[in-house]
Each structure stands twice: as C-alpha cells, then as structure tokens.
Amino acid sequence: MEDRWDVIIVGARCAGATLGALLAKRGVRTLILEASPRGTDMPMSTHLVQPPGMDVLDSIGVGDKVRAVTPASPRFRFALDEVVVNNRSLEGRPAYCVRRSVIDPWLQDAAEQSGAELRDHHRVVELVRDGERVTGVVARGPNGNVTLHADLVVGADGTHSTVAKLAGAEEYLVQEGTRAGYWGYFPAPSKWEANWDATLEHRGEEIRYVFRTDGDLVTVVYVGEKKEVQSWGRDYRTKLMERFAASPTTAALVEGKEQVGKTLGLLTMKFFYRRAVGPGFALVGDAGHFKDFVTGQGMADAFLDARRLSTAILDGRPEAYQRYWRERDVATLPLHFDALRQGEVGFNEPFNRFLMSKLATRPRLLGRLALMLDRQISPAELIGNGTVLSWMALALATGRFDVLSGFLKAGPVLSAHGKELAERKALLVEAERQLATAAPAAARSTERRAA
C-alpha cells in the first residue's frame, strides 16, 4: 500500500471529509484516516447548517442531497421568556438541520469520488517527526500499526484531537461551559403548522431548541445549569421529558410521541481556540476551535475552515498557512464571543430581554439579523452603539431601572471582546503583508509545508 501522500487528514467528518474532497478535486494526493467504522454516526453534534456552510457543501456536490431530504428552515423564532422575535433568512438562503448519520457518509463519499483515499478503523497513535517537523503518522489499523508519511498532517479529529495533543498545539481563549443538556428525536407533526421552522427559547435559566430535521423528525433539545443537569444521573430520561413538558413549545411536539433512537447528552463543555498550524501540521474544524453550540454555527464553521485551509494547502507557502490561522480567528471570533454570551447561565436577564423587545419592533434591524446569520455582518454590527444608548435613555426615563445592571455588565465584556478581535485583526494584517511580499509559490519547493 502507498505510504507517502501530499496530505494526511486525521478524521473523516464535517471538516476532514470536506477538506479531502476540496483537495483531491485539485489533484492533491490525499489520505483520510478515520478511527471509527465508515459512516458511523457522530451524535454529539448540533446539526444545523447555516447558509454559508451550504455554499461549501454545494462546491463538493452534497448541498442538493441535503435539500432533497431535509425541510428548509427559513423562519427562525428566538424567545427570551415572553419576548419573541420571529425572523426570516435572506431570500433563497435558508438553513438546514440534517443529522450527522445522514450527512457524514455523503461527505465521505464526496471525498472518495473526488479522488481521496479513505481508510476507516485507523486510529492515529503517534506522529512521525524529522526534528521538530511532523512528517507523518503511525496509525493502528485492523492489521496492526502502519507508518504513513506526508508533507502535511491535518488534525480534523474533533475537540479531543489526538493530532493537536501529540503536536503540542497550545490553547488560548479557553472557557468552561456553564450548561449541560440532553436531546432526542421525535416524529414530526403530519402537518407543520408553526409559524417557525427552528426555535431557540430561553425560559428563566433554561434553554430549549427545536429543529425540523431529515427523516420526518424534529430534534428537541433541553439545556440547563450544568450542576443541576449533571445531578439527574440515571433518571435523566424522566427529568428530560419533564423539562420538555414544562414549555408549550416542546410539550406539543413530544406529548404522546415515542422517541426515535437514543437520548443523547452533553454534560461538560470547554470552549477554546488552538494554534492552527505548526511545523508539518495543521488543525481544522473542532480540533482547532470549539464554540458554544447555542447559536448553531459549528457545522458551518467546520465547512468554512476546510475551504480556508484548502486554499492555504494549494498555495503551499508557509505564509499562506499563517494567513489561514489568522483569518480563521478573525472570521470566527465575533460569533464565538456571541455564542459564549448567549449560552452562559444568566443571559436571560432584563437588559437582554429589553434589547430583544426593541429589536422585535424594528423591521430594518430584523433584516440585519438575517445578514448576521449569513455572515455578512458580525453580531456587534446588529445594533449600533448609538441605538443602544438611545434605547437605554428611553428606558431609564420611563423607570426601567431593572435594565441598568445588565447594561453596565455588558459594557466591559464587549470592550474586552473588541480589544481581542482588534489584536487578532492586526495579526491577520501582518500575515497578509508577509504573504503578499513572499516569493511566488512556483519559486519555492513543490512540497506543501505548514509554517
């Protein structure tokens, strides 16, 4: 068997299989290693693919397959207790919620049809090095260990990435999650009569989600305070159904229904960034960056990450890899910070409910919400500072002093986020400058090497 490749990708899921398809289409000799059996479900994942993610799926021939089996979700409902915002996606740009058991095999097929080789049942146990540089992997397969060499090794192996651990990729912006949750699948109503296709609902300190998904099913999710949910123990199924019954939104979808498949849970979460490139290696998808799933941006991030990294690999210059790292951070940080805020226990407080109530009555601003979900503007650009200050002045003038503490708390947090983003933008500018002044790719080694 051939043991030398241009690129070895460890992990054959959203990021890894997509990257493999993009590279193989361009003639890059690509091997994808997957520890699990081919097509195995990845249940610990959100399933929502936002429009920019669908663009990447279209480029590898998977988008229409998703649309053929999955109801479009152009109508989104966001609720903070009694305050409800209903919004539509941009015309022709809906999201789709597709289970990983459905989409992952399609991504793997797309990679192979593009010319990549996929080997399942191969778990990476060691990195091969030449000095400090990664030059391959040792994988444990059905017939024992095999040593495989490549110009570049890519870790696409999730939040607990073996490649990241073995390569010593440092973490930054690390934060522990304050929530835990469970979810399951239920038969969809024979006729969908709700005025939304997906909903995110805060009730007190609890969050509930509903997504229409493939197979005539709905995904129903409950997320609560971490310690409380972790205390459920073996009684978690009963507790979960009690929580579903406590909201009219979810009660109507589960009452009298038999759950389809297993109840799934995520009881501890850590959000982080990791150094995206190093000597002979790169990280993509959740291996390099993991945000709170509250906003449903993870799959789109993985697909967009794969596209960005494919551009760097095809260029081949060290400066291109540095640009990939810095561009990833700048592109994802605003959504990362937004997800942290929305997912944190305590988000559903008077100030945020006040902002949402004002947003619900402003059609022009609601239109900007669709632009944000399409990644044309950042969350910070949704409502301008001047608008927020004018709303606050009106609130205080009418006796709404309950919103003041939330406003004062949000200021330093948003300021710190803005400072961090500005620093990352400066790093991107420098990376782009170095790439622009670097020798052309044709004048360098033909090997594709990470910086």
Describe this structure in words.
Helices cover 41% and strands 26% of the residues. The strands form four sheets. Strands 1, 2, 8, 9, 10, 11, 19 and 20 form an eight-stranded mixed beta sheet that branches. A seven-stranded mixed beta sheet has the order 6-5-14-15-16-13-17, sandwiched between helices. α9 runs antiparallel to α10 (318-343). Mean pLDDT is 94; it is low at 443-451. The two termini are 29 Å apart. It has 451 residues and is of the alpha+beta class. The protein has two domains: 4-176 and 271-340 and 421-443, 3-Layer(bba) Sandwich (FAD/NAD(P)-binding domain), CATH 3.50.50; 179-266, 2-Layer Sandwich (D-Amino Acid Oxidase, Chain A, domain 2), CATH 3.30.9.100.
State the CATH topology of the largest domain.
FAD/NAD(P)-binding domain
Give me the Rg, rounded.
Answer: 23 Å
Secondary structure: helix percent: 40-55%
Q: What would CATH call the class of the largest domain?
A: Alpha Beta
Q: Give the CATH superfamily of the largest domain.
A: FAD/NAD(P)-binding domain
Number of DSSP-assigned strands:
21
Q: Could you say how many structural domains there are in total? A: 2
Percent strand equals: 25-35%
